[in-house]
Amino acid sequence: MKTLGHRVIKFIETYCVHSTGDYLGKPFVLRDWQKEILLDMFEIREDGSFKYHTAYISTPKGNGKSEIASALAVAGLMGLNQTAPLIPLVASSYDQADIVFSSAKQMIQNGELRHYADLMERKIVLKDNPQAQILRVPCVAGVNDGMRPSMAIFDEVHEMTGNKERAHLVISNGLRKRENTMGINISTAGVENSLCFRL
Fold first, then answer.
1. Of 37 and 64, the one with more pLDDT
2. Beta bridge pairs of residue 185
3. What's the pTM value of the predicted model, to 2 decimals?
């Protein structure tokens, strides 16, 4: 199996540090089950394109879902050699979007990567490529049209109902405007007839 997962794993474990809790500032060491997911998720075809364009990761609470979401955003920004990567970190509320985005900022600020990015209130921008960005995006319908993400990370998908589900659809559709993109959905389990259940 050909995969970019090894590159993503090496990037996270080399350059990302934990942003909160008991491991604050310590190197981000992925668990074996997380590595298995990344190896599968970033499998590539012979032409180098992603085999999968949608990922759904569901784990119980307390397994570091938001932290891995942030690490994947940082890896997508700096570790995959994409042209002008645009990575919205999408959550169901402003508060949750702040949690994931702030975690990504801390991972960069507290490690070697701080020399390569400008950390702003609502976005992270590469210094040598201003179009390469991570954006903080609450899942609010009507404000996310026109986006052309290279990777979109949706955190706490089980909370995306009603208009929030519509915003998820709009951003997911934006992924189709570029080549070799991926939507990564991270959540606890969803109920039947929910976005989680359908994913």
1. 37
2. 56, 154
3. 0.89
